[in-house]
Every structure is written in structure tokens, then in C-alpha cells.
Specification:
The complex is a heterodimer. Chain A is mostly helical. Chain A contains eleven helices and no strands. Chain A has one domain. Chain A is elongated, with a radius of gyration of 20 Å. Chain B is α/β, with parallel strands linked by helices. Chain B folds into two domains: 214 residues, P-loop containing nucleotide triphosphate hydrolases (Rossmann fold, 3-Layer(aba) Sandwich), CATH 3.40.50.300; 73 residues, Alpha-Beta Plaits (2-Layer Sandwich). Chain B contains ten helices and 14 strands. Chain B has a six-stranded mixed beta sheet, with helices on both faces. In chain B, strands 2-1-4-5 form a four-stranded antiparallel beta sheet, covered by helices on one side. Chain B has a four-stranded antiparallel beta sheet with strand order 12-13-11-14, with no helix packed on it. Classes of the chains: A mainly alpha, B alpha/beta.
Chain lengths: 269, 295
């Protein structure tokens, strides 16, 4: 790893980290502040949900409407959109651009003509990606915990909350690996932000469709979301070893392959 | 005999089916200012990018200061400076910040002092954001970053683009003074006047192949001559078809003008007995010599 490059990357990505963290924290806490009103309008909400098409709640990862009336269920339903989708977009955009921006910005012609190996560039940037993702997850987990403690009307399973937060972190690391992998495959230097965002949305859509349509449930395994257990209200909620293994091994593999490709990649400017 | 600073052997780089460079062979000796000229798309930048390991060679090999360009790339880069043709430093940085960032990679002692000195030479404000700098000022930063660590070899790709004549002169003076201290320069350009002014030897690249490597002086002293002949009457027929008479033969009334690349004896023989009023023989400019190779 190269210290100068690492610190420079950390600084140049600080603003994006700040903005994304602020936005997701605000959305999470603002939505949680509606929990009390949600409970008070219990009957009206049940009536409204009854006219929604079947599977509409699945879009927010909710299989049973009654789960929403527990504080953790309510948090989880919002967490899906804010952390599992927006957070994944942040992770993939950050990682898919961190190497590639040196190429389309033509700064690689400086950076890679200085005495630093490709491996050092890769690991310095990877370290920044991991630190940023851990940071955003830590801050939002703390903000989520404070929201839950503030809004709760009855006790909730804190372990389930922590497990869900861990799943979220692993998912973000998966998308970070995927972003790096996409970026090293790009030959013509250009930003891949649109492609990355679209990929997250498509994978989430596949996951949702596979949940709604029993015939397509197999297709869900294409998406990493399938390996996230969202049933936090279930008393037996725990870390599934297979899921955790999948979400740990895949990013490692993606990062390992990306590094191999990057070491031999032609830098077109 | 010392090891050449740059030793290129059959270096080839293709872009799929497209040509990049083809079996390039070159040798640049220590202390030279070596010119590398060719038009846009001839393969100059590709050669440089392969030497710096931004691109990988398809075939062949090259060594810089005895190090292999692929295996020992980092060692090479710690001893080499590079001025890219299009200078695009990180736009969010200030000028001085960029140079300090560069110096941190090389571990330049007393970098700040050297940066201030060079910024004064090139007249750049240290605190100016790169995004607010003109292309010429960015080029100056690019020049400064390449020299901060006093490299043994400086590779430059179209270095004068965007520089005003005064700055060009300062840059050339700096190159000459660093060269006197032992720095070798690999100077790639399509601006012949720059090459002519600085370089001792030059390689001419055309369509990815080296077509000639010569000392600038030898190139000038080649048999090429610009000849103008005034005849008393009209220009004799068939004279324009003589082998050795280069393209651009212009005949107007009683006079003809051409570049001669053949044996002077055969020209004199062809002209003997003709009614000549006047004849002028001149050395061609480097530009004309260059065009000769390209046509």
C-alpha cells in the first residue's frame, strides 16, 4: 500500500462519504420518526394495504404486514430501501470509479509513471473503499440504534438488529467487489456510474420478482439480495452460515480476480 | 562501453488487428538528447506508454537503464521523469499540493524548496487550483513534476504544446542544463524545429516502424539538395523524369525547382549541354528532409 495515495484517496472521497451518510441517516431517522403515527393509524394502514397488489410489500422486503407494527420490522422495511439499495449504490459507484477515474481523468499518466506498483495502487484504493463502507455502515447503524431506542414502544431484539446490520455491511462489500471487477474489465476509459447503478437496481428487482413469483424463485439466487435474511421479527432470526459464507467469499473472489486483471491491464488514455 | 539508457529490441504493440508499433529497435545512449519524430498516429505515444508499462508489449522487449520495462517497472519509474503530451493533473488539487503529492512518491528531500524554485522559474502561483489553470500552466506543472527528483532519464511527449515561446525557451534551457548534469532526454515531438534545436540524434517513426535513426547533422548533410535552375529558353523535355528528382518538381516557364536525392554526377551529366542561365543549390530544411522520408 502507498501511504500518500491512500491518504489522498481518503480525502478526495470524504465529501461523498459525508453526503451519502447524511442522506441515508436523515432518511432512516426521519422515517423512524413516523413510527408513532404509523402505530396510531394501525387500522387505516391495514385497510390501505389490503387494496395494494399482492407482492407490493415484498418490494420492501416485508412478507407479513403485521411485522411492520414492531419497531424492528418497521426499521427493517425502510432499511431495505435506504441501506440495502442506496447503500449498495454508494458502494458500487465508489468502487467502480476509484481505479477507473484515473484513466478517464487521464491522471493515470502521472500516477502510473511514478514509482508505485499497480498492486500498491490497487490495495491503497481498496483500503479506502473498505474504510468508507465500514464507516457509512457504522454511522448508520449507530443512527439506526438511536432511532430504535427513541421510537420503541416495547423491547426489540437487539441481536437481530446487529445481525441485519452485519448482513448490510457484507452486501455492501459484495457490491464493492463487483464494482472493482466491472472497472477492471472496462477497456475504453469512461465512467461506469450508470451501469453500476443499473446493476444494483436490476439485481434488487430480480430478487423482488423471485420472491413474488414462486416459479421464478430460483432466479433470486442470481442476486446477492437473496442471501440477505430480512425476517428480523422472527424470534429464530440468526446468521445463516451459507449466506454469510457466500457474502464473504464472493467479494474476496471478485477482489482477487480484479487485482489479477488490473496488474496486467493496458491503460488506455 | 556503458549500458544504453534505452535499449529497445523488436518491440511490438498491436491494438487487436490495428497497428500500434511494429518491431521497433532503438538504442539511446547515456547523456544524449534523443529526438523521436513522426506525425500524429505514427506510434510515438504508444512507444512511450509501452516503455512506461502503461501498455504491455505484444512482442519484443525493452530495457531502461538495464531494467526490464515490464518486470522492473517501478525501479525504472523511480529513475525516470515523464512529461505526458496532455497534462491533466487532479483538478481538485492546488498547484503546490500536486507537486508535493508527486514528490511524496519519490521521497524527494527538501521537496518544498525545490518546488518553490521551479515554480518561480515557470511563473506559477502555488495556491492556484489546477481546475483554474490554463492548459499551458498545467503543462508547466507537468514539466516541474517530471524534474523534481532529478531523474537520470526524462521522457517527454510533445512537451511544448501550450507553452508560450518564452516558457519554451526556459524549458529548453532547463533541459540543456539538466542534460549537462548527466540527464538523458528522450524527446518525442512532431515539431521539427524543437527537435532540431535540442537533439543530437533523431529516430523517425512512420506507421509504427522506425524508418531512420540519424544524427541531426548527418540528416542535414544527406545528399538531399534543393535545386533551382533557370534556362535560357524553355525547360528541356523529360528532365523532370530523372531518377533522383523528388516529388514537388515545379516547372514554370524557363525555370524548374526540385529536391535532388540522387547522385550529383548523374544530374550534372543530364544537364550538360543544356542552355542554363543560372543554377542555385541549397541545403534543405529539416522539414523538407522529414517530408522526404514521409513521402
Amino acid at each position: 500500500m502507498n501511504r500518500g495515495l491512500f491518504l489522498r484517496e481518503l480525502r478526495s472521497n470524504a465529501m461523498a462519504l459525508l453526503v451519502w451518510t447524511a442522506v441515508i441517516t436523515f432518511l432512516t431517522t426521519a422515517t423512524m420518526s413516523l413510527y408513532g403515527i404509523f402505530l396510531e393509524n394501525n387500522a387505516k394502514i391495514l385497510a390501505m394495504v389490503s387494496i395494494l397488489p399482492e407482492g407490493a410489500l415484498q418490494f420492501k422486503g416485508v412478507s407479513d404486514i403485521n411485522d411492520l407494527f414492531s419497531v424492528l420490522g418497521f426499521y427493517s422495511a425502510n432499511n431495505v430501501i435506504y441501506m440495502l439499495v442506496l447503500g449498495s449504490i454508494y458502494s458500487i459507484v465508489l468502487s467502480s470509479n476509484i481505479l477507473l477515474k484515473e484513466e478517464y481523468g487521464r491522471t493515470a499518466e502521472f500516477l502510473l509513471s511514478w514509482p508505485v506498483t499497480r498492486g500498491q495502487v490497487f490495495f491503497s484504493k481498496l483500503a479506502v473503499v473498505v474504510i468508507n463502507i465500514v464507516a457509512i455502515n457504522l454511522i448508520i447503524t449507530v443512527a439506526g440504534y438511536i432511532s430504535l431506542e427513541t421510537c420503541k414502544k416495547e423491547p426489540y431484539n437487539i441481536d437481530a438488529f446487529l445481525i441485519m446490520s452485519l448482513y448490510t455491511l457484507l452486501l455492501h462489500l459484495f457490491f464493492a467487489g463487483l464494482g472493482l471487477f466491472i472497472s477492471v474489465l472496462v477497456r475504453k476509459p469512461r465512467p461506469v456510474t450508470t451501469l453500476s447503478v443499473a446493476l444494483v437496481m436490476v439485481l434488487y428487482f430480480i430478487f423482488t420478482i423471485s420472491n413474488i413469483t414462486p416459479d421464478l424463485s430460483w432466479a433470486g439466487y442470481v442476486s446477492p439480495y437473496k442471501f440477505i435474511d430480512l425476517d428480523v421479527v422472527n424470534p429464530a432470526y440468526r446468521i445463516e452460515p451459507v449466506n454469510a459464507l457466500y457474502l464473504t467469499i464472493c467479494p474476496f473472489l471478485l477482489i482477487f480476480i480484479s487485482r489479477r486483471i488490473y496488474l496486467r491491464k493496458d491503460i488506455y488514455l | 562501453m556503458s549500458t544504453p539508457v534505452i535499449q529497445i529490441s523488436d518491440l511490438t504493440r498491436r491494438y487487436g488487428r490495428d497497428r500500434g508499433i511494429d518491431k521497433i529497435n532503438l538504442q539511446v545512449e547515456e547523456g544524449e538528447i534523443f529526438g523521436f519524430i513522426g506525425p500524429n498516429g505514427a506510434g510515438k505515444s504508444t512507444t512511450i506508454r509501452v516503455l512506461l508499462n502503461l501498455l504491455f508489449p505484444t512482442a519484443g522487449s525493452a530495457r531502461i537503464m538495464g531494467f526490464d520495462i515490464v518486470r522492473d517497472s517501478k525501479k525504472i519509474r523511480s529513475r525516470t521523469g515523464y512529461i505526458p503530451s496532455e497534462a491533466s493533473p487532479w483538478p481538485d488539487m492546488a498547484a503546490r499540493e500536486f507537486l508535493l503529492y508527486c514528490a511524496s512518491f519519490y521521497g524527494v528531500p527538501r521537496a518544498d524548496r525545490k518546488i518553490i524554485e521551479l515554480m518561480e522559474v515557470f511563473d506559477i502561483e502555488p495556491g492556484r487550483k489546477i481546475s483554474n489553470l490554463s492548459s499551458g500552466n498545467r503543462k508547466k506543472l507537468s514539466i516541474i513534476q517530471s524534474l523534481l527528483h532529478s531523474p537520470g532519464l526524462l521522457i517527454v511527449d510533445e512537451p511544448t504544446t501550450g507553452l508560450d515561446p518564452l516558457m519554451q525557451q526556459r524549458f529548453f534551457d532547463l533541459l540543456r542544463s539538466e542534460n549537462r548534469r548527466g540527464m538523458t532526454v528522450f524527446f518525442s515531438s512532431h515539431t521539427l524545429s524543437d527537435v532540431q534545436m535540442l537533439c543530437g540524434r533523431v529516430a523517425i517513426i512512420k506507421e509504427g516502424r522506425i524508418i531512420n535513426v540519424e544524427a541531426i547533422e548527418t540528416l542535414r548533410k544527406k545528399q538531399l539538395k534543393n535545386i533551382r535552375i533557370e534556362f535560357i529558353d524553355t525547360v528541356p523535355e523529360n528532365l523532370a523524369d530523372l531518377p533522383g528528382m523528388e516529388n514537388g518538381v515545379s516547372v514554370s516557364g524557363k525555370s524548374m525547382k526540385f529536391t535532388w536525392s540522387g547522385d550529383m554526377k548523374s544530374l550534372i551529366a543530364a544537364l550538360s549541354g543544356k542552355d542554363i542561365a543560372d543554377i542555385t543549390v541549397e541545403e534543405p530544411s529539416l522539414e523538407e528532409i522529414f517530408m522526404h522520408y514521409y513521402n
